[in-house]
Amino acid sequence: MTFRSTPESPIDAISRGVPLFQRVAIIGLGLIGGSVGLACRARRLAKEVRGADHDPGHRAQAIALGCVGEAFEDSAAAIDGADLVVLAIPVGEIPRVIQGIAAHLPPGAVVTDVGSVKGSIAATMERLLPGGKAVPGHPIAGRELSGPMAASAELFVGAKCILTPIPTTDPVALERVRGLWTAIGADVLEMSPERHDEIFAAVSHLPHIVAYALMGTIVDLSEDGQDLHEFAAGGLKDFTRVAMSHPLMWRDICLANRQQILEMIRRFQSALSRLMSMISAEDGEGLYRQFARARTVREAVGRVKGAGNRTRSDE
Amino acid sequence: MTFRSTPESPIDAISRGVPLFQRVAIIGLGLIGGSVGLACRARRLAKEVRGADHDPGHRAQAIALGCVGEAFEDSAAAIDGADLVVLAIPVGEIPRVIQGIAAHLPPGAVVTDVGSVKGSIAATMERLLPGGKAVPGHPIAGRELSGPMAASAELFVGAKCILTPIPTTDPVALERVRGLWTAIGADVLEMSPERHDEIFAAVSHLPHIVAYALMGTIVDLSEDGQDLHEFAAGGLKDFTRVAMSHPLMWRDICLANRQQILEMIRRFQSALSRLMSMISAEDGEGLYRQFARARTVREAVGRVKGAGNRTRSDE
């Protein structure tokens, strides 16, 4: 048996009807923030759930839909008395918001986030949030729609949630954040922020950038006077879905995970150049081999339990 | 009124219960060939439908499922007495098969195909099939599954079918092939083989090659010891579907539409390099503009009636 710093696990506490948190403050009431609120309230994980959002429409919708009990314009006001703060805002805004709330954080309040890039956020948290209460996280969930209207209490059921503790993270804080995600249905994994960013540069960031480049090519052709839309139902359609993700979110991801993404694009360019050379040289055998090899990814993905059961575009 | 070389249109004839063809011979009893057979028989468009396939399993299944009444190993035997021959075989096999059947074609038999590349096939037909009976075609339909077991009489309902007549194509032959596709539910368009190949290099061939290059990158990383499959449910998933298309079919398409595809890859590479430079230079504004611009493709595709209602991977 290993020593446990908590007298009982968060999940045990929930099963006895004890809320995990007294007051959860969600900064950012979009799809993810709204869904965290709904999920916490539906499962009675907190005595109180409040939120903050700059957009008055989001605040009104989040209250009307029951994502939060109260909604503030000011993040510092929202975190008053909170023992958990969830930052559900675009990656690029996280440093500024942490800077804004750091001085107002109640002692002991745990801070987590849902950003798709972890290295830069972990570094910011390490610098601005001493005391061990910072637990960087990334729930792998999303929908094509955004905003609180698209929120669902079940969004995270069966989804993976990756926590990337930093050297200063207090084990109790980590355990509490793990308890939250587990309780709202996610499958929690732990890894380093660097490993997270390396994996997601490959499986998520690169595919999105490639889809954007492909859409850019088609838009360029259209601007050259080619009307291709009528024929775009085929291979292109799958890419248009990926490229519908939020431009702002992807701008932030590109900037925050710059080095890993550039490295992945370089690897991709080599693979594409190889195919180009084969096409150019009419190397049918080589092309066949490369195309057949690509199928192994799909087959491997198919073997991973639960993969591909949901629509997730913003990961 | 325009002069009509047919006394009545094929569709008028069908509506009076007159079959369009006496004997249809389908060379290649896979998904598309099998579906053409089922669709013709379900709608009584031909007095008789027969087929040919090298694979004895395909022949047995096509007969058992009712795709054809009779199935031959030898294409020349299958076309005996046919007034329509449909070549439903991989693009790369078409020249060889045309060479094999040309001497055995009944006089007056119309020949069409379903290949995804039209320029090279049109050239082969022009050379080997004099007499005006050749009508190159491309129904835009497919499924993730292949083989006669996946065939459906409704596969072409609502799908586009592009006919690319060559200078020698007899208007009556063209009208009869148009009648066939219209009768089985397709929306028939006409354009030159060159225009077809230019459009499909952009909307179908390029996306498939990009998906293959992306899968190749992921496979390379896996071979370097990175197990990414567990995380591949996101952006990557849409690409794995595209990359599941048949390696043989895509090898043939790459070889047959080589120049147009290389040109499209070059355009794509420029678009990707532009994004790379922006990421490298931390040009957030430029990235945002490019990402926002990509959404216009999806919006335009959404406006085209019927686009994206079906699962089509092999176009």
The CATH topology of the largest domain in chain A is given as Rossmann fold
Radius of gyration over C-alpha positions of chain A, nearest whole angstrom: 21 Å
Largest interface, C-beta within 8 A:
A-B, 92 and 92 residues
Tell me, rounded to a whole number, the average pLDDT of chain A.
89
Q: What is the count of structural domains of chain A? A: 2
Annotation, overall tally of beta strands of chain A: 9
* Topology pattern of chain A, helix = H, strand = E: HEHEHEHEHEHEEEHEHHHHH
Seen as an oligomer or otherwise, the chain set is: homodimer
CATH architecture of the largest domain in chain A: 3-Layer(aba) Sandwich
Helix content of chain A: 40-55%
Brief characterization of the structure:
The structure is a homodimer. Chain A contains 12 helices and 9 strands.
Description:
The first copy, chain A, has 315 residues and is α/β, with parallel strands linked by helices. The first copy, chain A, has 2 domains: 10-191, NAD(P)-binding Rossmann-like Domain (Rossmann fold); 196-302, Orthogonal Bundle (6-phosphogluconate dehydrogenase C-terminal fold). Chain A is built from 12 helices and 9 strands. The first copy, chain A, has helices at 10-15, 31-42, 56-64, 75-78, 94-101, 119-128, 171-183, 193-223, 235-242, 247-256, 258-280, 284-303, and strands spanning 21-27, 46-52, 70-72, 84-87, 110-113, 134-135, 137-139, 160-163, 187-190. In chain A, the strands form 2 sheets. A 6-stranded parallel sheet of chain A has the order 3-2-1-4-5-6, with helices on both faces. In chain A, strands 7-8-9 form a 3-stranded mixed sheet, with helices on one face. The radius of gyration of chain A is 21 Å and the shape is elongated. Mean pLDDT of chain A is 89; it is low at 1-6 and 305-315. At the A-B interface, helix 8, helix 9, helix 10, helix 11 and helix 12 of A face helix 8, helix 9, helix 10, helix 11 and helix 12 of B.
